[in-house]
């Protein structure tokens, strides 16, 4: 039953690509920590494995489960989310091509497209993806080959309409990509909404335990999948066996984790909404969020990420970020432990002075799986006026 795409999501997360070890019966497939594979005579490969950059069984097991979760044919696992994005960009684009991307995409994505691929002749336009007219206009730029969507966006949790954007992108002859890192496949399935490509930082919810860096590209079979596979092999930014194994281990609990992340985040968003120290809460699970109805259609839950704008400005935001105890001050997101971040000087420092700059009164929370009353008490003490 293991690779049966008709099985439910949680079943696929636990079983796809995870056959027990045939020689010992070990329930958990071993970590194939090997750089090369013995041949039975020249070219006599066992299971197609030759050298660890071209393929490794542990990486295959991760790629199999990632494709199964997404309803895609193929997944390719990389050493980081940005390595996955880089391989995809080099597969999909040629010098002179133009990319349309959200004006609040992950800062590292903007840096990669602007400063690395920009040097190799890739042009880009950043637009508000919730403004479909602006997107249509940007897509009219000659040689637009890729529309890059991120929803919910980081850190302001804007929700954009994947199905509507996919139609616009395709009408303009562009490929449509979704960075689905914030939602994870447990909450949102972009290929089923019309996207061509999904990319992940598996470092976040897929790994889920803040102990591994990784990334992935998921798509249907075809020319582009061949090119991404070739980039992975020929440029070599592969997921290593230990990293692949840890990610697989994390994925087994993805569904249940995202339920709890979402419940905790909803309770925190409701508590902060209306708190005297808080000017605004950015969480799609709040009915007042401009993307609430769209998110309710497009996602199965609202996720574990939220941001707040502090009424007291930059000082209040910095104070909050440095005053919590259960929420630890660190970059990244999507782990079992709650984290707090100050985007303008942490995750989004690289986009200061660009159209992606984040206001100084914003604090971002990655809500973990702790007891929600401890999380609420932590925020309450950190937001209390100083005496
Ligand atoms: C973290 C992140 C990335 C980059 O992934 P790395 O694993 O850090 O290279 C890309 N997109 C989003 C939305 C992210 O949060």
From TrEMBL:
Gene Ontology cellular-component terms for this entry are: cytoplasm
Q: Name one GO molecular function term.
A: cystathionine gamma-synthase activity
Q: Which cofactor does it need?
A: pyridoxal 5'-phosphate
Documented EC number(s):
2.5.1.48
Record's keyword annotation contains Transferase: yes
Which Pfam families does the entry mention? Cys_Met_Meta_PP
Q: Which residues carry this modification: N6-(pyridoxal phosphate)lysine?
A: 204
The alphabetized UniProt keywords are: Pyridoxal phosphate, Transferase
Q: Which domain of life is it from?
A: Bacteria
**Biological-process GO terms, alphabetical:** cysteine biosynthetic process via cystathionine; methionine biosynthetic process; transsulfuration
Q: Which NCBIfam families match?
A: PRK07811.1 (NF005871)
In the record, the note on similarity to other proteins reads:
Belongs to the trans-sulfuration enzymes family.
Name of the protein described by the UniProt record: Cystathionine gamma-synthase
Q: Which species expresses this protein natively?
A: Humibacter ginsenosidimutans
